[in-house]
Amino acid sequence: MQTCRLIFALLATGIAHAGPPMLERIAVSTDGSGFVEVSSGRAFHPWGVNYGNGGRLMEDYWDKEWDTVAADFRKIAGLGANVVRVHLQFNKFMQSSDRLDAAALEKRGRLVALAEATGLYLDLTGLACYRTADVPEWYDAMDEKARWAAQCVFWRAIAGTCHHSPAIFCYDLMNEPMVPSGPDGKWYSGKLLGSYDFLQSISRDLAGRKRSDLAAAWIDTLSTAIHEKDRQHMITVGMLPWVGGWGHLFGFVPKDVATHVDFLSIHLYPDTAKADEVRTALSECTGHGKPVVIEETFPLSCSVRELEEFLRESRTSACGWLWHYDGFTPQDYDERAKAGRSGRADFLWQAALQSFVKMKPGMMESP
Description:
Distance between the termini: 38 Å
Strand content: 15-25%
Order of helices and strands: HEEEEHEHEEHEHHEEEHEHEHEHEHH
Number of helices: 12
Low-confidence stretches: 1-18
Radius of gyration: 20 Å
Strand order of the largest sheet: 4-5-8-9-12-13-14-15
Number of domains: 1
Helix content: 25-40%
Structural class: alpha/beta
Largest sheet: 8 strands, parallel, barrel
């Protein structure tokens, strides 16, 4: 069966040469400090990227530009990554509250085959509503109970079609969910980064409940739906960090979340002006008996050197790190410069990806 899947993967992605060694399923180590490859017992350190191409949402182009997706995965593997985080848009998969789009599921299946063929693991992050104008009206009109039920339909379907694949690193329930602080909340933050809103609330009304209890109930509800179809692959949730003066503003507190997920995922971007904040935020994730993955990081508000320093320090607390990729390798940026097509952002992207390649060997060693 494994051989058949790999042959299908090679045919589906157009990769003619021999593929990498067969992937093994990844699980939490017995001591809870990190990850292992299940069959061999080898330690596994996630070292990868959040996937994008030209700032676009993947589902906007994977129909007509599948070759772009396949080429990107090969490039990402060539940079030394072993994990790719992909963000699945809710509206592209759900035709109604209880019916999924068959074509989208087929593309997701093709994506899993591509991951197997290129030797990359997938961090499948779901329920994304990044372009809020695309969100179905019926979805936003739902109350909490109905919305959670629709989210369960989504995750049950994804898990049901992924459970067989060793290329699934984890299911990330949602990117940067928020717990409301009271009544009359909104589903989204209303704060755009570019043209996208990356934050989404799990409810619009706290209704007298503790924020930690609501977060736990939501995680458990969606995890139960996944476990109906897949009890092997790990589950996490991409959390925003503790911030100075505000604490855990968004309601997902690592010490409370830890018992409800397989590992903790935190998004940390060092800031030159607030050097201690990111370190304090990471310390909030340690000591809870679960591995810690820095699921998003990049030198957005610091120098590349400062990011490198932080990541090296983080090896005593974290065991995995995911940067960003937007369609170009360092060599691609050289070609863009030679052609006179470089922009200011190109130099940041190139320097960051060069650092990504350079840092990997040291980050794979025990601290």
